[in-house]
């Protein structure tokens, strides 16, 4: 099929803040060189829209995401609730607006329950912790401590109920409500089962041998107990894939000690967040960590790094994480051939070592890197 005959994809293009804008510009260079047939539709997201409109993820961007095949997202700046209130325009101050991370909202609103983070060490990357690391993290993306059910000041009704229902709460029961805070960790059977299945399905599809379930069920018995119990049930449907499990703390140690003992990792939201940064660091750090937030109807692909304000506008950031996120998007859309070509071109530039951004010890710019990869396509 010629490019002209192929489907024209609608891609929501959400650069966000800081270096998010530059790394998405870089990704566009390689997608254009691949002749990926797409209409890119800009979406507003990020700090500017929080300050001006009181909403970092405006409704028009939500509507856009409802109408596209997939999305590429750069990065946003997030600040704590009180700082966020201070930076609102005067007309919006004191109106009761509360800042919430737009990416967390996006994951929940569109039920992007899979966070898929491949962590592959490419030969020749001077930042590799060890050569040939190839780990894949599946992080639950909508529940757990990120559910958003939190109390900065604990209301008396809640304290009263906890006093009645929970013995360990006695240790806190006499504190005034403004002297403690509660963040709830909520994990459902459905949410646990579908992320665990996604990890096993991936392992089956790509011939991976083992899925390791990461938890802390010996201490966090209710929620992590449910996650582990669910994993043991799900594993029965995949007799050819080995399952083991480990506590998050031990996991961090063992991953560093021997990353080759691990293959696919699956975890509830917070532990998944932690181990995916650890795994990303082993294959080059934030400039290499890419991620897909995947639901049944929509998938949003992004580098795992943030907006790195100190480098904003300098075109110093490494765009490889974002270029690999674009590769994930191509794969997800079924454009396997383009996805493979993009990965091979990226691999070749890393192996050659002539073009390196500052994090890799070089002086090349964000766009130099993108052009070098595009030249290999
Ligand atoms: N998904 C997201 O949009 C996301 C993720 C993390 C942090 N944030 C937000 O980003 C802002 C900055 O957070 P932070 O400084 O903790 O984390 P960050 O990821 O933005 O940057 C931390 C440091 O990592 C390095 N780095 C990051 N990306 C790089 C790249 N592509 N190439 C080379 N080096 C890179 C830089 O040294 C940078 O200063 C905060 O407002 C935070 O809330 C957003």
C-alpha geometry = globular
Mean pLDDT: 95
Question: What distance lies between the first and last C-alpha atoms, to the nearest angstrom?
Answer: 19 Å
Secondary structural class:
alpha/beta
Residue fraction in strands: 15-25%
Helix fraction? 25-40%
Question: What gyration radius follows from the Cα positions, in whole Å?
Answer: 22 Å
What is the number of strand segments?
12
Ligand set: nicotinamide-adenine-dinucleotide
Main β-sheet, in a few words?
A: 10 strands, mixed
Helix-strand string: EHEHHEHHEEEHEHEHEHEHEEHHH
Short descriptors:
377 residues; alpha/beta; ten-stranded mixed beta sheet; two-stranded antiparallel sheet; 13 helices; 12 strands; 40% helix; 17% strand; disordered N terminus; binds nicotinamide-adenine-dinucleotide
Written overview of the protein:
The chain has 377 residues and is of the alpha/beta class. Helix content is 40%, strand content 17%. It has helices spanning 19-33, 47-53, 59-65, 81-86, 102-109, 156-165, 189-205, 221-235, 248-257, 269-282, 320-332, 336-352, 366-375; strands spanning 9-16, 38-42, 70-75, 114-120, 134-140, 150-151, 182-183, 210-215, 242-247, 264-267, 290-294, 299-303. Strands 2-1-3-12-11-4-5-10-8-9 form a 10-stranded mixed beta sheet, sandwiched between helices. It starts with 8 loop residues before the first strand and ends with a helix. 44% of the residues are buried. Residues 1-5 have low confidence and may be disordered. Bound molecules: nicotinamide-adenine-dinucleotide. Residues 19, 23, 75-78, 103, 286-287, 305-310, 317-318, 321, 359 line the site of nicotinamide-adenine-dinucleotide.
């Amino acid at each position: 099929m010629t490019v002209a005959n192929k489907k024209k994809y609608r891609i929501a293009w959400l650069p966000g803040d800081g270096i998010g804008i530059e790394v998405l510009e870089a990704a566009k260079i390689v997608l254009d060189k691949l002749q990926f047939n797409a209409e890119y539709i800009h979406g507003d997201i990020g700090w500017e829209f929080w300050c001006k409109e009181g909403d970092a993820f405006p409704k028009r961007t939500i509507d856009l995401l409802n109408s596209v095949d997939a999305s590429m997202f750069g990065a946003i700046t997030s600040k704590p609730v009180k700082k966020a209130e201070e930076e609102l325009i005067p007309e919006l101050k004191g109106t009761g607006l509360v800042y919430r991370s737009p990416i967390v909202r996006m994951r929940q609103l569109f039920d992007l329950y899979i966070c898929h983070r491949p962590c592959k060490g490419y030969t020749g990357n001077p930042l590799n912790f060890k050569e040939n690391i190839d780990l894949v993290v599946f992080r639950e993306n909508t529940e757990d401590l990120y559910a958003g059910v939190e109390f900065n000041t604990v209301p008396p009704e809640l304290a009263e109920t906890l006093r009645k229902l929970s013995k360990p709460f006695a240790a806190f029961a006499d504190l005034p409500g403004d002297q403690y805070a509660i963040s709830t960790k909520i994990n459902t059977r459905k949410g646990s089962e579908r992320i665990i299945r996604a990890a096993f399905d991936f392992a089956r599809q790509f011939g991976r041998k083992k899925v390791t379930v990461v938890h802390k069920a010996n201490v966090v018995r209710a929620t992590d107990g449910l996650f582990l119990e669910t994993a043991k049930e799900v594993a029965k449907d995949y007799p050819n894939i080995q399952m083991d499990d480990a506590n998050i703390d031990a996991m961090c140690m063992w991953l560093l000690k021997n990353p080759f003992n691990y293959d696919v990792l699956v975890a509830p939201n917070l532990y998944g967040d932690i181990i995916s940064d650890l795994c990303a660091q082993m294959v080059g750090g934030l400039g290499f960590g890419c991620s897909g937030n995947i639901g049944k109807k929509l998938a949003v692909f992004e580098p795992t790094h943030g907006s790195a304000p100190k480098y904003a506008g300098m075109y110093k950031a490494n765009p490889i994480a974002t270029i690999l996120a674009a590769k994930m998007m191509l794969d997800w859309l079924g454009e396997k051939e383009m996805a493979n070509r993009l990965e091979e071109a990226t691999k070749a530039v890393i192996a050659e070592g002539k073009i390196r951004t500052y994090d890799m010890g070089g002086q090349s710019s964000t766009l130099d890197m993108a052009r070098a990869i595009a030249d290999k396509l």
